[in-house]
Amino acid sequence: MLEEVKTRLVKYGFTGEGEREIADLDPSMLLQFIDEFKDVVRFMTITCYEKDGSFYLEYHFSMGGRVLTLRVAVPEDRTVPSITPVLPSADWAEREIMDLFDLKFSNHPRPKKLIIREDAERGIYLNS
Q: Any alpha helices (H) in the chain, and if so which ranges?
């Protein structure tokens, strides 16, 4: 079964080599990846960073002792699909990113603030 999964991972940019791999993925393909592998990989966390005026999200998963990271360039409208409806454990990571970076996750089931006061503006990272 593991070999079949590795073969399916190739279409998302993973080679099956090494203990840690990073693959770039278009945001429109994110939910397709999650849906296809939700029962195979374990969601770890999401990291967000800014580089050259653009934002990037890295979705980290573990599978059989390996770490697979999907790197997604955030579109100009600052919105990416939420993976929380499929992987509820992503809830806090997405909400933290909303608070710190003022990014949006479409279809997030609970987009209320997590680490900042309700009356505070989102984007703490941007305003520091």
A: 2-10, 30-37, 91-101
Of 55, 69, 51, nearest to 98 by C-alpha is 55
Instruction: Look at residue 31 and tell me if it is in a domain.
Output: yes
Q: Which domain holds residue 40?
A: 2-78
- Tell me the per-residue pLDDT of 13-49, one tens digit each, with 9 for 90 and over: 998 777 899 999 999 999 999 999 999 999 999 999 9
DSSP assignment of 103-117 equals: -EEET-S----SSS-
Closest CA to 125 of 103, 106, 104: 103
Note whether residue 116 is domain-resident.
no
